[in-house]
Each structure stands twice: as C-alpha cells, then as structure tokens.
Write a structure and sequence with these properties.
Chain lengths: 579, 264
C-alpha cells in the first residue's frame, strides 16, 4: 500500500456549481518525489487540501471517495493529527509565518503539539540545518528575503517530522536562484532522508530534473501519470496546456527530424552527453549558422529617439537599504526592454522612477527629453503606464467595466471617449465577456488581464509591467507573450521587469541586467545570455537551451542560441555536415 | 504617528532587555503610579530624571528621542490648554502657580511617555506574550496579539503597494475638498480589506497545518525564570512605590518652586 492512496475522490466546494475534483485515483509510494502539474484551476490546490484534511475538516462541501495518508484516513482524523504525518507548505511565505523570530516560528507547531522544551530544541536545530538556515536562527522573520522565508516555512513544517511533504507552488514569488535552492533542499530531503515529496509547480524546466514521477491534472482528474521523460514526451501533455521543458522540446524536435536519440533528457547535462555520443567530434568546415534574422534588428530603427532617460540615479529607502546606486539607462521609442536580476536588485525601484512614484535622491529622470522632477505622478502616469505584480493590489470596483474606466475618469476623459476606450481594452485583452462581472470572482489569470486592461485603456506611450509572469501557468504566459508581441509590432515602448529567464528568451527583448542597485550589463538578449560574468553578478542563470549550447562550442556551434527552433536547426545541420 | 515609533520594540541586548517582563511591567506600573499621585513640579521632574539613566542602560536613546519628538506637539498642547483654562476660569488672570501647574502636567506627560518607551522598547513581543501566558490569558488572545504585531510590517508594505498601483492609475489623494479626499481612499481601503480577508483565510489554513489547537497543554519554547537580578529589581520597584506613597501622603507638601507673582 502506498503512503498516499486516493480512491475515486470527488469534491465540490460549498455553493460551487461544478465539482473541483471529479473521480480522482492516485497512489504515491513511500519515498517518491512526485511533481504535480496542470493548468490553473485544474484542482491541484484542492487536492492538496484533501491530503492533510483541510478538506473536509476546515472546508465544508461534498467529499466522496477515500483518502488515506500514511495509514490514516483523512475523514476520521482531525487536521492536527494528520499534520504530524503530512506537512503542507503554501505559495505565499508571508502567510504561514507566525512568530517574530526564526527559531520561535519553527517552534510554533511543536508548541501546539505540546512537545517538551529539550526535544523541541533538538528538532529546531535539525530542521534549520536541513534547509540550510541555521545561521538565521535569531533573526526577525520580517527581515528575511522571500527565499529565506520560504525555507523557514519548510523548516517549520519539517520540525513536526512529517512523512510526506506537500508544497503548493512554493517558488512562485522567488527568483530562479531562490527556486533552485528550494528544489535542492527538497531533493536532499527526499534522497537522503526518504521523505515523500509532492511538489506542485509551474516551473517545470527546473523542477522536472528532481522528480521521479509527473502527474498531470486537468479539470479535476488525473490525465497523465508516469516518469517525467514519458509524460513530457506525450503529445497530450502539451495539449493540456502544460509547459513542456525546453530540453524535452528540443529532444522531440531532433527525434522528429531523424536524429536517433535515446531516452528523453531532463537536464542540459544529459542532453549534452547524448549529443556527444551521437555526433563525432570533428569541426565542420563551413559556418553552421545562416544569416541571423532576429527581431531586434528590425527594431533597430527606433534607436534614435529616447523616451525615458535615467541619468546617474541613486535611491535609498528610509530603512537604509540602498536600492539604486548611480543607475543610467536610456529607453528608446518602440523598444522592448526586459529588466532582469535577483529579487532586491533594484528592478522595481527603478521602474517606480519612470512615473515619479519614487523621486531620485541623486541624478535625474527625463521623459520625452524633459526633466520630470516638477511633474505629478498623475501627469506622468498618463504617458507611462505601470502595471503591478499583484492585480489584487488594485482591483476594487463592482464590475470589470468600472475597474477599467477608473483611470480614464481620473484623467478626465469625456464620457463617450471612456466608453470607446473601455470597449477597446476589453477586446484587446479578450475579457469582453466579463464586462459586467465583479473582478473578484475571476481567476488569477483573468484578474491579471483586467489589471493590464485597466492601464492599457488610456493608451500610455510606455507600458511597464512588473513581474507579469508570476503565478501564471504556461497557457497564460503564452497568451501574455502573444499580447506583448502584438504591442511590439504596434511600436509601443514596452518594459518588463522580471526574473523569468525562459519567458525573456521567448520574447527576445533588449536585456538590462541589474545587481546590487547597479546595471551590470545592457544589450541584445543574445549578447547578455552568453555573458557569463554579468549573468553571475546578477545571479541570473541562462535559458536551458543556451546552457546546452555553451557546452557544444567545440563543435563550432555558436553559444548564443535561445530557442528550440534555432537549436534544432543548428544541430541537424551539424549532423548533416559531419562525416 | 511618530509617537508610536518610540513604542516599537527593537532587538537589542542589555540588562533591561533581559529583565523578566513581569518585573518590568510592575516597575513600569510603579513609575506610572508615582507620576499620577504627585502633582508638584519637583517630584515629577525627579520621576522623569530617574528614568534617564535607565534609557541609557537599555541603549534606546535614539528611539526614545524619536518618541519624545513625536510627543512634543501633544506636550505643547497640554501646556497651552492648561494655561488657557487657568486664564479663562480665573477671570482673565494668570499667576506663577498656574504656570508651574501647567508645567508639572506637561512633565508628567513626558515622564509617562518615557516609562512606556522603556517598557515597550526593551520587551520583545515574544516575551510579552509569555508574560500574558503566565497571567493565564487564554492562548487564543495571546496569539491574536502576536499575530497583529507580526503583520504590521506586512500590512504596511501592502498598503504602500496599493497606493503605488492606484496613483499609477491617476488617483490623486491630495486634491479636492475634505469629502472628496475621504472618498479617494476607497480604492486604497477596499483592496486592503479584501486582501486581509483573503490573508486571514490563508493564515487559518496554515495554522491548521501546524496543528493549532492540538492539545490543551501547549508548551512554550521560551520559559520565564526569575533570576536574582529580577528579584532585586522587583524589590527596588516595590520599595520605590512605598517611598512615593510615604512622601506624597505622610510628609507635608513641598509647595511651589516659583515665587508667587501675577503674570497677566
């Protein structure tokens, strides 16, 4: 019998029209590392809530079927008893930390269980050691970075010694480096300590390397279940709207074109090994690459007229954190720019200078050639539209329509113009059917689109998007990317602030890398993604495909390959050119 | 509210930080009682001055200065309203005794701010909660108190994000008359409230997942133990209270410091 046994599980939330889970069967064996994925709203989170008894003990509703976890039936055991066998870790670290110091937070669960002090201290030591934050033991919890907070959340659950660890999109708010650290912690808990791990993730490129098994959910059911290699190779998985890891996409492309590769690889390393076996190490005579035809060459014509000019700007928060340290950056009309770097590198602080939310303490910011220091945020916002990370920080109206017209009314547009603009924005973002709905009943991805529409409605010259891909699944990201491409072809100046390197690789913008409040590199994406030194400084790791090509330069292949199409083309050509 | 700034605990290590929170609470109550029972300038000044070495002992001078600065405006109001009320109730006249009285009340206020600062600045909420626990306050209340403190910085960040987002959509908070200005806070308050409700649900889920309420016999990582120093501090506090009561009620009053004269 598996450690998790789910038989014919169906569940509907109270007052819900359709069930969230519809006849689900799943067995997970002790010691497995299972990656659970599927489009937003497919029932992943609901499923997690069932596994530690939040459903049915905390949430009412109709539950059918049987679940046993570590030998306990979830129906018959209260959540606090289940909590000692199954640990559940949530997306937002801030909402699962209770104490003011790290040590005390790890103790919280143990105190609730009435464990004596000596044993408590032992377990705290162990749990902090496991996630690698022993050195933070006496720190205040609100001083920690997002990644550290999430590791603390894991430690706090670990201290209760669960046999199964469930993590519901734990890396959504983290930068790639923070995410990798979490995955490494999970890997060692699984491999070295035999803890069963169930990980829900959209970041499949990184996560799939650690998993033994992938389970794909769709519409409240398990639609695919097997080894990562098999599941990701299946065409249905892609059709479910799951983002297939880039390496497997490349593998499939090569196999389709007659390159006889063995098993699908999960990491750049294994693909490189496979390729080295396949292709004799001889340098082909001619150049492999054809003339490049990149988008950024077409956009080069815009480089003449600057829109936003930032000169030597420094900014220190009242808390004493210096967020910007002499930043200079010029963004030209019609350009598409991605500002990248770790959390805390100063990306958002810089973006807030574009519309005057923050004012430089040194240096100056100009818009359309004139200094902005005398202008109000409202005046500047007319030209520079800023869309923030979390749509819930701005939605407040009774209907989507009203939400979108809010800014237009603030800017004093005429009634008939407002109506036209709202129609236009609703169509642009494909949310016309929600016109009269309350923004609060929409899904996360839809709310994000409403927020975007509410800014685009006044047609600002420059659009700045702060972390647009956070918490978005593959299909939503694709939609966003198409939309950005559309803006780009219309010649709209677009800036995205992000740490999503695969998304950036797909968009191919100009990349500005930031680290420690400074710009460490700035240029076309192909240049930046092969600049090892700058990437290291900014703690950005290159896209998976680029990682592969950085290892293949001995074949005379270029390093600056970003996408699957180009990669497949080059490799096939190399094979044909070889002896 | 910079006066509250001086009440926010900052981590530190000093004899005052290490003092048992219960003893510290009693000591603060003693200062409070002393400041309330005395009416005259000299003893009130004495109560204020006695606390200054303690401020330095706790190394909280800077935070204390901040709360004094925040309280300065209120102190001025206290002084001015007292003077004004004497002036008008005495039939438009003012003597030196009135000035001394107004001054005493102001010094009393400053002495009270200082005593609160001493307590809150050197007592971590964790320890405070422990003291509440020892006082048999139900854990649910205690937990609510700690959670409220824990989420102050989180909520402040969130309010800032919301303000930024709405200002970026052309909301101008500082324009229009009072009524329109108040209405302009709706786009800020609504998301804040809705996010808080959403957050409380997530918190409840996380609490359940950490076995909240599993047993009545909850343990605590930290324990309060009275040391010799704590007992000494407690003794000093109680002796001081007795001394105050004796001086105030069994000795003849000191009388005014300023020579009696008409000012207005």
């Amino acid at each position: 019998m598996g450690i998790v046994e789910v038989r014919d599980l169906s569940y509907s939330y109270p007052n819900a029209k359709t069930p969230a889970l519809k006849g689900l069967d799943l067995t997970i064996e002790r010691g497995e590392f299972v990656l659970l994925t599927g489009p937003s709203g497919c029932g992943k989170t609901t499923f997690c809530r069932c596994l530690n008894g939040l459903i049915p003990h905390f949430y009412n509703g109709d539950l059918e079927g049987e679940i046993t976890v570590a030998g306990l039936s979830i129906r018959e055991n209260p959540t606090h008893r289940l909590a000692q066998r199954v640990g559940l870790i949530f997306q937002n670290p801030d909402n699962q930390i209770f104490a003011l110091t790290v040590e005390k937070d790890v103790a919280f669960g143990l105190e609730n269980l009435g464990i004596e002090k000596r044993k408590m201290l032992e377990r705290i030591d162990w749990a902090l050691e496991m996630v690698g934050i022993s050195h933070l033991r006496d720190r205040a919890t609100h001083e920690l970075s997002g990644g550290q907070k999430q590791r603390l959340a894991i430690a706090s659950i670990l201290a209760m010694r669960p046999e199964v660890l469930i993590l519901d999109e734990p890396t959504s708010f983290l930068d790639p480096l923070g995410a990798e650290r979490i995955f490494r912690v999970l890997d060692s808990l699984n491999k070295e300590h035999g803890i069963t791990i169930i990980l829900i993730e959209h970041r499949l490129d990184l996560a799939s390397q650690h998993a033994d098994r992938v389970v794909v959910f769709s519409d409240g059911r398990v639609v695919n279940n097997g080894s990562p290699e098999d599941v990701f190779s299946l065409e249905e998985t892609r059709l479910e709207g799951v983002g297939i890891p880039k390496i497997i996409q490349l593998y499939k492309r090569l196999r389709d074109r007659g390159v006889p590769l063995d098993r699908p690889p999960l990491s750049p390393d294994s693909l490189v090994r496979e390729l080295e076996r396949m292709i004799p190490r001889t340098r082909p005579s001619g150049p492999i690459r054809k003339a490049a035809h990149d988008l950024d060459e077409f956009t080069g014509e815009h480089r003449a007229s600057p829109v936003i000019e930032v000169e030597g700007v420094s900014f220190t928060y009242p808390s004493g954190v210096q967020a910007l340290d002499g930043v200079s950056l010029t963004i030209h009309r019609g350009e598409f720019v991605a500002i990248m770097g770790e959390n805390g590198a100063g990306k958002t602080t810089l973006a807030k200078h574009f519309n005057g939310l923050l004012r430089p303490q040194a240096g100056r910011v100009s818009l359309d050639g004139s200094d902005i220091s005398g202008l109000s945020v409202a005046t500047l916002a007319r030209k520079v539209g800023l869309v923030f990370q979390n749509p819930d920080d701005q939605l407040f109206s009774e209907s989507v329509e009203e939400e979108i017209s809010f800014a237009l009314r603030n800017f004093g547009f005429q009634m008939d113009v407002i109506e036209k603009r709202v129609d236009w924005a609703l169509n642009l973002l494909d949310i016309e059917r929600y016109r009269k709905s309350s923004p609060f009943v929409l899904s996360g991805g839809e709310r994000k689109r409403v927020a975007l529409a509410s800014v685009l409605a006044w047609d600002p010259e420059v659009v700045v998007l702060d972390e647009p891909t956070i918490g978005q699944d593959y299909a939503q990201k694709e939609k966003l990317r198409h939309f950005l491409m559309q803006l780009r072809t219309q010649g709209k100046t677009t800036v995205i602030v992000t740490h999503d390197v695969e998304f950036v690789a797909d968009c191919k913008p100009r990349v500005v890398l930031m680290a420690g409040g400074r710009i460490v590199a700035d240029g076309p994406i192909k240049e930046i993604m092969t600049d090892d030194e700058a990437l290291k400084l900014a703690s950005v790791s290159p896209p998976e495909i680029t990682k592969v090509f950085s290892r293949l330069s001995s074949y005379g292949l270029p390093r600056d390959v970003l996408d699957v199409d180009e990669a497949a083309e080059l490799l096939v050509r190399l094979r044909e050119a070889g002896p | 509210m910079s006066i509250l700034e001086g009440l926010r605990f900052s981590r530190g290590d000093s004899p005052l930080h290490r003092l048992d929170p219960r003893v510290k609470f009693i000591a603060t109550l003693v200062i409070f009682a002393a400041a309330v029972i005395f009416m005259d300038l000299v003893p009130l000044l004495f109560i204020f001055i006695v606390q200054i070495p303690l401020i330095f002992l706790g190394r909280i001078q800077r935070e204390w200065a901040k709360s004094l600065k925040g309280g300065l405006f209120l102190a001025l109001i206290i002084f001015a309203t007292n003077l004004a009320s004497f002036y008008f109730f005495q039939g438009r006249s003012l003597n030196s005794g009135n000035v001394e009285m107004a001054l005493s009340l102001t010094v009393r206020f400053i002495a009270l701010i200082t005593s609160f600062s001493l307590f809150f600045l050197t007592t971590s909420p964790d320890k405070l909660s422990l003291a509440l626990d020892k006082a048999r306050i139900p854990f649910e209340f205690n937990f609510a108190f700690i959670t409220a403190i824990r989420f102050v910085p989180v909520l402040a960040d969130e309010a800032q994000s919301i303000m930024d987002a709405q200002r970026s959509r052309g909301l101008e908070l500082d324009k229009g008359n009072l009524l329109t200005r108040i209405r302009k806070y709706i786009p800020i308050l609504l998301p804040l409230i809705i996010n808080s409700i959403r957050r409380s649900l997530e918190l409840a889920e996380a609490m359940e997942s950490r076995a909240f309420g599993a047993t009545r016999n909850r343990t605590n990582l930290y324990e309060l133990k009275m040391t010799g120093g704590d007992i000494a501090a407690l003794t000093v506090s109680l002796l001081a209270l007795m001394a105050c009561v004796y001086v105030r009620f069994f000795l003849p009053p000191l009388g005014p410091v300023l020579p009696p004269m008409e000012i207005l």
